[in-house]
Structure formats: C-alpha cells, structure tokens
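tool=predict chain=A
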Amino acid sequence: MVPKWDQGRGYASKRRIPLDRLVITKRGRKPTIGQFMGQLRGQELRRITQWQTAAEAWNHWGSFIGQWLGAATETMLALANVHADSRVLDVAEGAGGQTLTVARRVGPSGYVLATDISSNILDFAASNARAAGLTTVETSVVDGENLDVEPEAFDAVISRVGLIYFPDQQKSLSGMRRALKPDGRVAAIVYTTAEHNKFFSLPVSIIRRRAQLPPPLPGQPGPFSLGTPGVLEEVYRQAGFRDIQTRIVSELLHLSSAEECVRFERESFGALHQMLAGLSEAERASVWEEIASALRQFETADGFVGPCEMLVAVGTK
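tool=predict ok
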C-alpha cells in the first residue's frame, strides 16, 4: 500500500525544495510545475522503496539496535509518561524494538499502534509481536507526514530516529499533536550533531565528497538536521507544544570491528545507498573501503567503539 500523494492538498508548498535545486530540463530551463510535482512524486516513491528494501536488514539488526539505543529509548518512554493502560502511537516504527518495549510497559489493558511508510517493516513488527505473545500491538501503513489516525486518541506519541527523515518535520509534529489527548505528550529521539556522531557522519561526509553531492540545505531532512542546540525545541514550539524538555544520552556504538560497522551501515542505512546511486559499482566499492579505513580510528582493544550521542525531546499538548 502506497499512501496517497496529496490527499487533495499537494506537497509543493511543503517540501522546501526550491526549483533551482531540481533537475533542469533538456533546454536548460527550470522545471514547469508539472515537472516539479513529478520529481516530488519520484522522491516520495524512492523514499518508500528505500525503506521497503531495508526492512529485512532492519529486522535482522533489530536486537542490536535495541541494545544500542536502549538508554535513549527508556528516556523517551519516561519523558512521554508511558505507563500501564497507556494508548501509544509509534511513528516511523523502523526496527521496532521500541514497539515491543512499549507493549510490555502498557500491559494487557494498554494499546500500541505501530505505523510506518513501509508495509514490509510492519510485517516484521507484527510477526515479532505475535512471537512475543503481545496482543495489544496493531500495525498500519501510514506516512509520518500524513498521520491519518483518530484524533485525540492517544496518551503518547513516540518516534525513535524517525523525525529527522521527514521532509516536512513541522507537518509531522503537528499531526502527532492532533493525535494526542489533551495533556498528552510527544517524545522523539534524534541524533545530536555530526561532531558527536562520527560513526555516521564520517561515512556521510566521505560519500558526499566522492559522489560530489552539495551540502544539505537549511531545513532539509537528514540525520543531523535537528541536532544543533535549540533547533528541535523550536520545531516543537512552532508545532504548538508546551513544557518542552530535552535530554542528551550517550549511546556508544559497540561492534567487533570497523568492518562490522560498515556492514551494519551498508545493510541498514538506506539513505547512504541513495547518496551513492550516481557512482559505478567499482566506485561504490572504493568508497566503502575508504569508509572502513576512516572508521578504524575507533577500534580499541575491546573492539569498535563508535562515537554516538542522541537527543531526546518531549512536548505536551
């Protein structure tokens, strides 16, 4: 199931992609509105395909991701005040370990609705919930920017490393707020800055240089788009939240070697493959070799320890 493109409204005014950054027509002119909309539709389909393709890897690495982000996840659930009997909406469910954690926390009288743009991801989530004997988890294919869920139906909304990838983060947060009961809370986990997440920012910078990609535009989605101090709080404030709080949580990435970190990122981080799309197979292989070499600086006697820092935020309706 592919979410409807515009639901009668369209995205042209929401995507923050200026015409001069889009593909130029063969005659050297800027795209017409029709071409502009067509390119946006193509980007939307590529985004869906990216997560559909990554679903199996996300599930394979799910236990590791749960351990890696365990402290940040617990912080998120505590700030969101998720407790027994809570009704919780999980947006951009991804690897899904947090969904199972929430289901155990809310108990048999609670409820969890796990949503994602990828039906493949949600198939794994539903299967994992059944295997764990958790009967209060439901799944639904929903775009995080167009949260077609019952309004004022949830005590808490959570999103673990999902908000950063929404092209219109403001629209997503507004939809989350609409889904909340009065005094409900939205809590999200994002990366802080590139400087404090070099396990990820080094590969991104190497790929950007080798593929000759321009730097991201201000406001453009990406792993570090909300990590600068004050940015996430302001996004929450603009969406109408009050009592906004943030916490920084160190989540060092522990793996056996730099090569295993490369394997983890190659298999799970679909955005990196999108960035590499314009290179040949040989060039891509060379890029991954350079990334592995750069990441070896984080190898220790105890294995690979990648710098990683997460920011957890919460706001109240």
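The two ends are 31 Å apart (CA to CA). The beta strands are 87-90, 111-116, 137-141, 154-160, 180-191, 242-250, 253-255, 299-300, 303-306, 309-316.
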